[in-house]
UniProtKB/TrEMBL annotation:
Organism of provenance: Chitinophaga agri
Keywords, alphabetical: ATP-binding, Nucleotide-binding, Transcription, Transcription regulation
A Pfam family it matches: Sigma54_activat
Name assigned to this protein: AAA family ATPase
GO process terms (BP): regulation of DNA-templated transcription
Domain of life: Bacteria
InterPro entries for the chain: AAA+_ATPase, AAA_lid_NorR, GAF-like_dom_sf, Homeodomain-like_sf, HTH_Fis, P-loop_NTPase, Sigma_54_int, Sigma_54_int_dom_ATP-bd_1
Region forming the signal peptide: none
GO molecular function list: ATP binding; sequence-specific DNA binding
Coiled-coil region list: none
Keyword Transcription regulation among record annotations: yes
Sigma-54 factor interaction domain location: 287-516
Length: 600
């Protein structure tokens, strides 16, 4: 023992035996088939003679070797059975994986039964084939006190000159201290090292012999893997490769399905929108008129159409604001896409928000399906916001944010959606007065008032009334199946003399009614409202005469009777023009106090 103790770094058991008083130690090799499998140590008491080469010692050592060999074989077989069972369990578990959460659970349960590690990580190679990014991150790796967890998730790590470049066909065990000192370690490895990790095992994940990612195990210990575990690792890595490839493929499919579903919803919305547009009788192929006022407007349209600038169309009701908006869109680079419009006054604020920005399923009562909003429908196109002055203050804020950030968020949504939309807004309101009154946001006004276009009222472009009237006569005569060529001079003079508080829309309705009530090829009578409202250029005034409905009806019937020289029945009579049976008209005349002497 004294000799053994005098040697450099004697084993701990030698020190222990010496401390118990042992002075002599007999060591014999244990062999099976000529191969040493271990040693047997015998403490020899002082004064006892012992034959080292005795047959008894050889026989005992031979029997010990057989016994120990059998025990080792049984234990090894038992361990192999356990490992085989764990691998089978791991294989069954990994076959059922469909998403990242299941994969993560597998890493934290089944994989820990096979290997002793602190935390795991899987990275996938990006489409550029030059970098990789975190695919699955073990929650055990999250330690806010040691490093910024979120940064690791989003970090793209170059493949060149990194630990990943070391990996080709097999795995690599990396000493993190040495690797960090080279200065080549990416941020996520340095942070793991700072957090206490000493070694990292990195293995390639392959699909069809092509590396698609990397599997990493971190350990805060050294010599934590034996040769048998390294052998197991190759099989585990193969299964992890299959699972990772399946999840990546499944995520791509899900993404494609989501895009297809969104595209389908958009097509359905656009189809519905087109059907609604078809139902509305638009005939906006050209803007009718040659007056200086309308020519000035058309010049502005030509100037702004090719740009991406926001346009604000101002003007009274019925002046053709939507027609001008369509003219701008149809002359713009976005003309191949459908112009989307929304009337901000047509729906309550709660529904307008859903119409503009869309909503997710279940975001509010009645939201049984996801809905794509007008902003999304108008992506790469133009969104026409009619009656913008009717938006509530809350919606004005959301609209302003959408215009500033060029992104929206559906009601109930958790992600923002980038949009590329040109805005054309219109209103008949005095927005500057609304700003003074606190009913319209000044910052939104500045966003919209980049290129204002003021449309003239019809009373300021009366030279266009003849051509507009002729246009409407042709349209509604064709629609009614009648042959009507024009208005006579008297009827046209009446139209020009009227102040048109309802502008072009009112003119259109008057012509439509006149066409329906005309049975000749020329319109002799136009049926203007009984009360004429005089408009000042700067402000609207109340009508000079206020009549009851009965008085208006009486005046209208008297006018018809005068036109037909008091004739009630028969072709061209008052009853026919009014669309009433002669008996009904006679009763109405009696009720209104219209006597024969009043009939013209």
């Amino acid at each position: 023992m004294a000799d053994l103790l005098s040697r450099p770094n004697p084993p701990a058991y030698i020190k222990f035996l010496a401390a118990t008083g042992a002075e002599r130690l007999l060591t014999a090799a244990l062999r099976i088939g000529g191969h040493a499998i271990g040693t047997a140590h015998f403490v020899v008491e002082n004064g006892v003679q012992f034959e080292v080469k005795s047959s008894l010692l050889k026989g005992v050592c031979s029997q010990l070797a057989v016994a120990i060999s059998n025990i080792l074989t049984i234990e090894n077989n038992y361990e192999r059975q356990i490992e085989k069972s764990k691998l089978l369990d791991f294989s069954n578990a990994i076959a059922a994986i469909h998403d990242k959460m299941q994969f993560l659970k597998l890493l934290n349960t089944k994989l820990r039964e096979l290997f002793r590690f602190s935390h795991a990580m899987i990275a996938c190679i990006n489409d550029d084939k030059k970098s990789c990014i975190t695919f699955i991150l073990d929650p055990q790796e999250k330690d806010p006190e040691e490093w910024e967890y979120n940064q690791v998730i989003i970090e793209n790590v170059p493949l060149k000159n990194s630990a990943f470049e070391m990996v080709s066909s097999g795995f690599v065990l990396v000493d993190l201290n040495e690797f960090v000192n080279t200065g080549l370690a990416p941020d996520f490895i340095r942070r793991n090292y700072d957090g206490g990790s000493l070694e990292m095992l990195i293995a390639p994940l392959k699909e069809d012999n092509r590396i698609i990612g990397f599997f990493m195990l971190f350990s805060r210990e050294r010599e934590w893997l034996d040769n048998n575990q390294l052998n197991i690792l190759s099989g585990v890595t193969h299964q992890l490769s299959i699972a990772a490839a399946n999840i990546v493929a499944n995520e791509k499919i899900q993404k494609q399905l989501t895009e297809i579903n969104n595209y389908k919803q958009r097509l359905e919305q656009e189809n519905y929108y087109l059907q609604q547009e078809i139902k509305i009788n638009h005939n906006h192929s050209e803007i009718i008129g040659s007056s200086p006022a309308i020519k000035s407007v058309l010049t502005l349209v030509e100037q702004v159409a090719p740009s991406e600038s926001t346009v604000l169309i101002l003007g009274e009701t019925g002046t053709g604001k939507e027609l001008i908006a369509r003219a701008i869109h149809n002359s713009s680079p976005r003309k191949k896409e459908l112009m989307i419009k929304i009337n901000c006054a047509a729906l309550p604020a709660s529904l307008i928000e859903s119409e503009l920005f869309g909503h997710e399923r279940g975001s509010f009562t009645g939201a049984i399906d996801r809905r794509i909003g007008k902003f999304e429908l108008a992506d790469k196109s133009t969104l026409f916001l009619d009656e913008i002055g009717e938006l509530s203050p809350e919606l004005q804020v959301k609209l302003l944010r959408a215009l500033q950030e060029k992104e929206i968020e559906r009601i109930g949504g958790k992600t923002t959606i980038k949009i590329d939309v040109r805005i054309i807004a219109a209103t008949n309101r005095d927005l500057e007065q609304m700003i003074t009154d606190g009913r319209f946001r000044l910052d939104l006004y500045y966003r919209l008032h980049i290129f204002p276009i003021m449309l003239p009222p019809l009373r300021d472009r009366k030279e266009d009334i003849p051509i507009l009237s002729s246009h409407f006569v042709s349209r509604y005569a064709k629609k009614a199946g009648k042959i009507i060529h024009a208005l006579n001079a008297k009827a046209l003079k009446e139209l020009i003399g009227y102040d048109w508080p309802g502008n072009i829309r009112e003119l259109e309705h008057v012509i439509e009614r006149s066409v329906l009530l005309t049975n000749t090829e020329t319109i002799h009578t136009v049926y203007l409202p009984a009360v004429k409202t005089v408009f000042d250029n700067n402000k609207n005034e109340q009508p000079s005469v206020i009549q009851t409905l009965q008085e208006q009806e009486k005046d209208y019937i008297l006018k018809i009777l005068k036109k037909v020289n008091g004739r009630i029945s028969g072709p061209g009579g008052a009853a026919e023009l009014l669309g009433l049976p002669a008996s009904t008209l006679n009763s109405k005349l009696k009720k209104l106090g219209i006597h024969r002497e009043h009939r013209g």
